[in-house]
Amino acid sequence: MEDRLVSDWSRQINFELQNLSSSQKDGRHLLASPKEITHRKLRARTGVRKKMEVVQQDDEALVKLENTGIERSKAVDSAVLGKYSIWRRENENEKADSRVRQMRDQMIMARIYSVLAKSRDKLDLYQELLARLKESQRSLGEATADAELPKSALERMKAMAQVLSKARDLLYDCKAITERLRVMLLSADEQVRSLKKQSTFLSQLAAKTIPNGIHCLSMRLTIDYYLLSPEKRKFPNSENLENPELYHYALFSDNVLAASVVVNSTIMNAKEPEKHVFHLVTDKLNFGAMNMWFLLNPPGDATIHVENVDDFKWLNSSYCPVLKQLESAAMKEYYFKADRPKTLSAGSSNLKYRNPKYLSMLNHLRFYLPQVYPKLNKILFLDDDIVVQRDLTGLWEVDLNGNVNGAVETCGESFHRFDKYLNFSNPNISQNFDPNACGWAYGMNMFDLEEWKRKDITGIYHKWQNMNENRLLWKLGTLPPGLLTFYKLTHPLDKSWHVLGLGYNPTIERSEIDNAAVIHYNGNMKPWLEIAMTKYRPYWTKYINYEHPYIHGCKISQ
């Protein structure tokens, strides 16, 4: 920009100097003395210098504006968007979309000049700019690479270049353009923030929903289960359910398809499937469907048993703090009767914290494992959004060194430490816990139930859950009370046992996933949802038979 302006001004000065020289040759020098001519030359050079200073000031303003934009962009949290922009930059060919970028640049300048044209009553030019802008928008569409552009794009780029050249000659004003760019940058920044909030809201909303296909599957299985006679509803090998010499798994889920993937992937990668026992617990709505699915699709030689959490009569409000809290008017108001936001962005900050699933007993049942399985001494707890990729029996051989919980730690530098999950402004937290203590992950946990009972882990959990009735210690979920309950009672497992982040992080190394014993789709982008990340979904779908009559009939597809 500076070079072009200086060049134009230099040509103008040279032209004036040539006129002065010509006037001397044809006798017109009598109109101006040598002193006046020298003065004119000096004044012309001074003018050029001043204009260059103005350009430099404008360029400095632009640089400052760009730096401000960069700093603001760094502050935008891209976690909800899955850090897609980071992944994209690593994989795109910079030259692959040069025309697309040029068209976008032209459209930006067209918007600027259209504003200037309208403000200066250049209405014909204004209409022409708008027309070319619409043509470019139609050509560009959703294209992100040159190959996606229509054949007419090149002609429209040339037409836009011509009208921009015309506008530049008539309207060019460095200061006005700088101001307009500043306005556009601030507007774009606000739009990004608004879209980020909307994206957060919609992502959380999608994560709460059950796809129609899975709902259909559950309904059809439930109907067929209750058409069975009672004697056909029983699973074989019930004698294995309390045998402590076998490998026992706890899986609590209300998603039939997700539970089937966990069981199938575990058995298909097990060295001795007949020694594995699966204890499934679901709710009354999905109890029939979960039973029917595994009656129709038994896990080979492994043992499986399905229970209904509502049949645990000992799990009542007089014993369980979460159930007691659910009965309080304040909790009902918070979770079920809170004012609904008027806009998507306004509701994004509330939706996550007001999700009743965080008070679901299926979610909190993990704190009652010895009560559910009193005859077992060890059990491996699995979430329903994981996939098993290798034999897990080695976990039963890990020495927990007197600890209760074996888990993979998740902290790295300042991330996923206790102060991220807990309110350290509360003295009950700050006086009892280290804010820099390392967090760990639920999803694949080896629990020593003998040590659990000796250390009264359920009692510790009850203590902290009772103290958090007003949500002053932590906001939501089972991980914060888990961190408190198992504080200094957790043995760190090797990270290759459990790789997390497939539900939100698109930058996980392929080798890290392939070498993991368990991969975990924690986050909003679950593999059974449409918002799942495409590159991670095949690890999950490989354990589903899409030709199965029930799955095919409910139109569940890859």
Describe the structure.
Helix 8 packs across helix 10. The chain is 50% helix and 8% strand. It has 23 helices and 10 strands. It has 558 residues and is α/β, with parallel strands linked by helices. The strands form 2 sheets. It has a 7-stranded mixed β-sheet with strand order 3-2-1-4-7-6-8.
What key phrases describe this protein's structure?
Glyco_trans_8; 50% helix; 558 residues; coiled coil; elongated; seven-stranded mixed beta sheet; alpha/beta; glycosyltransferase; 23 helices; three-stranded mixed beta sheet
Per DSSP, what share of the residues sits in E-state strands of 2 or more residues?
Answer: 5-15%
Radius of gyration: 34 Å
Strand tally is 10
Beginning-to-end CA distance, first to last residue:
52 Å
Low-confidence regions: 20-31, 73-94
- Given the helix and strand composition, which structural class is it? alpha/beta
Strand order of the largest sheet: 3-2-1-4-7-6-8
